[in-house]
Amino acid sequence: MSVLSREKAASGAEAAPRAGLSEGKKQERRLGWLLCAPAAFVMVAVTAYPILYSIWLSLQRYDLKFPENREFIGLANYVTVLSNDYWWTAFGVTMLITVISVSVELVLGMGLALIMHRTIIGRGLVRTSALIPYGIVTVVAAFSWRYAWTPGTGYLANLFSPEGAPLTERASALAIIIFAEIWKTTPFMALLLMAGLALVPDDLLKAASMDGASWWQRFTKVMLPVMKPAILVALLFRTLDAFRIFDNIYVLSAGANETSSVSMIAYNNLMKGLNLGIGSTMSVLIFLTVAIIAFIFVKLFGTAAPGSSDDEGRR
Amino acid sequence: MAAETTSAKVKWGLLDAIVVVFALIPVLWIVSLSFKTPGTLTDGNFIPREWTWDNYKLIFQTDQFVRALMNSIGIALISTVIAVVLGTMAAYAISRLDFPGKKALVGVSLLIAMFPQVSLVSPLFNIERNLGIFDTWLGLILPYITFALPLAIYTLSAFFKQIPWDLEKAAKMDGATQGEAFRKVIAPLAAPGVFTTAILVFIFCWNDFLFAISLTSTEQSRTVPVALSFFTGASQFEDPTGAISAAAVTITIPIILFVLFFQRRIVAGLTSGAVKG
Fold first, then answer.
1. Over the stretch A88-127, which tens digit does the pLDDT of each residue have?
2. Residues B168 and B259 occupy one common structural domain
3. The Cα angle at residue B274 between residues B272 and B277, in degrees rounded to 5
4. Staple partner for A242: which of A98, A276, A306, B132, CB 3.0–4.6 Å?
5. Which residue has the higher pLDDT, A291 or A13?
6. Best interface-test mutation with B: which of A147, A271, A310 has the largest number of B CBs within 10 A?
7. Pick from B27, B144, B64, B20: which is nearest to A140 by CA?
8. Is B275 within 8 Å of A229 when comparing Cβ atoms?
9. Do the domain assignments include residue B277?
10. Could you tell me if B159 and B261 lie in one domain?
11. Is any Cβ of chain A less than 8 angstroms from the Cβ of B233?
12. Residue B166 domain boundaries
């Protein structure tokens, strides 16, 4: 990738004595900084500052209903949240949704990527259709699923459970939430995987085929190894994305019957409980969890982040 | 051989059909609901037995929806323009210039792409209240730009790297001024990438629910996805299902148009920025 080599070249050049910087080089640096400054400023101002502020808030008792009781209480909020079943139930639900939906999506996404990449007829049609779940507003799709599973109104409810109300029972509600999530995001996974598929040299596949490799052997021995970086990036992105699930749950079950994700309870704590201290504590905990997941991916699997060089991915 | 290709075609055709049906059914279902009459709304039929435009007439007569639609369009367009302009500047620098701190910028955008947005909800809620931008367009535009920027920077850098920049030099050698070289040579080459990025960013802003529901409290800046979830008030609609469906279909139309007309670009945009080994 070109930026990679250029970056390496740049760091190599930096090692050389700085005095040697030509006027043109200095100008290039200044232009680079100038062009990046606005984007960098906005990104840092809207994320770094709030997350630091959030850490500060999480160390206080701060309930908007009783603002006069605001005081510094150290880690007490963390004790409150982490010793609460409510938090751990939501955490478990979020993990369950993340693991199941990402695993299923990986398989379906791989299938879809193969279809989009290799189909000999209707490629445009199939790609256009696949983009619809990607592009559609999540809330809209969630309403469609909700009505489909509403007793009486919905075709799916009448078909599969004419007696019950699947969205009001925990197991079936979670299954529907996971299904909605899979429907919505499989195309995104497939597109990321398709980018990896495009990297597989056709010659290599032909050669393997000539040598008598079966389709499965070609898939596991030739395609998967080449695609490994793409697969890891897709998994990383989707895992972190699935972990912040909110819209689908909000519309489908509103978090009733212990179907809340961590995002749901953090939101409820803020909006319904108006408790900034506890809400911020949850924010920080979610942030830490996501950081740990990303760290595991990067360390364990050596995921190179998209568009970045290896050493960046490992930071 | 001919028989084999026919059977291959049938096989791929079937697979295509599965994908198309799977992708479209939920969309067709909500379209169907939006055209049902109150009497047939709860009959559970996939295709309406009686068709009506009433649901659409109803929502376009309510302020609640029209206002939300304006908010959605305005906020998404402004955020898109700003994010694409800032993203273009940064992506140009990243793909064309050498300067220290470039890696850090790429790293920061990557971190933000993975950032759990809910972690920002509590602090932003309080910060925006203190600044007086809670429940305003600006209050939503700021987080939208922030989370759209990584997407914009990645997609645009990928596009910019494919531009043959030497053409610019060649044009200048042939006597074009810097401005002309940029306008006549580089801009037309860069435009498709910028346009594609704008579509992706717009879809992202159009789609958001979490920020929109947390950082607004009145119709003044509520976007459609949020307004939809508040349509339950029986004061305006006796049974909101038809109205919600009609509103849902309305905000799906732009997405369908983008996908229909720019499928190739969107696929190229999403795949190019995504994976580099």
1. 989 999 999 999 999 999 999 999 999 888 888 888 888 8
2. yes
3. 95
4. A98
5. A291
6. A147
7. B27
8. yes
9. no
10. yes
11. no
12. 62-241+248-272
Nearest CA-CA distance, residue A174 and chain B, Å: 18
Q: Please indicate if any CB of chain B lies within 8 Å of the CB of A74.
A: no
The Cα–Cα gap between A66 and B106 comes to: 42
Tell me the pLDDT tens digit for each residue of A130-167: 889 998 999 999 999 988 888 777 778 777 776 777 77
Q: Which of B205, B130, B201 lies closest to A50 in space, CA to CA?
A: B130
Helix axes B2-34, A170-197, angle to 10 degrees: 140
Kindly report the nearest CA distance between residue A202 and chain B, in angstroms: 17
Contact B103/A7, CB-based, under 8 Å?
yes
Helices marked H in chain A: 2-15, 23-58, 76-82, 85-118, 123-135, 138-148, 155-160, 170-197, 202-210, 215-217, 224-243, 247-252, 262-271, 276-301, 310-313
Asked if B157's CB is within 8 angstroms of A3's CB, the reply is yes
Q: Residue B226 phi/psi, 5° resolution?
A: -75, -45
Half-sphere exposure of B91 (CA within 13 A, CB side): 27
Q: Are residues B112 and B206 part of one domain?
A: yes
**Hey, are the CB atoms on B114 and A40 less than 8 Å from each other?**
no
DSSP B36: B
For CA atoms A15, A18, A20, A21, the dihedral sign is positive
Does the beta-carbon distance from B146 to A183 stay under 8 Å?
A: no
Whether residue B204 sits in one domain with residue B146: yes
| Top mean-pLDDT range of A69-73, A307-311, B86-90 | B86-90
**Which position has the higher pLDDT, A113 or A311?**
A113
- What is the structure's pLDDT at B1? 46
Facing residue for B123 by CB, picked from A39, A54, A145 = A54
First to last CA, chain B: 37
| Least Cα separation, residue B50 to chain A (angstroms) | 15
pTM: 0.86
Distance from CA of B147 to the nearest CA of A (A): 8
- Report DSSP state, residue A69: G
Question: What topology does CATH give the domain A96-267?
Answer: MetI-like fold (1.10.3720)
pLDDT < 50 stretches in chain B: 1, 233-235, 237, 275-277
Percent pLDDT > 90 in chain B is 18
Q: Which residues fall within 8 angstroms of residue A58, CB to CB, at 6 or more apart? A: A77, A78, A277, A280, A281, A283, A284
Q: Which of residues 92-121 of A touch B (CB under 8 A)?
A: 112, 115, 118-121
Q: Decide: A273 and A279 in contact? Cβ < 8 Å.
A: yes
| Chain B residues touching residue A233 (CB < 8 angstroms) | 274-275
Between CA A37 and CA A163 the distance in angstroms is: 60
B122–A276: do the CB atoms touch at under 8 Å? yes
Structure tokens, A303: 């995921």
Mean predicted lDDT score pLDDT of chain A: 81
How many domains, in total, are found in chain B?
Answer: 2
Strands A71-72, A60-61: pairing is: antiparallel
Are B110 and B231 in the same domain?
yes
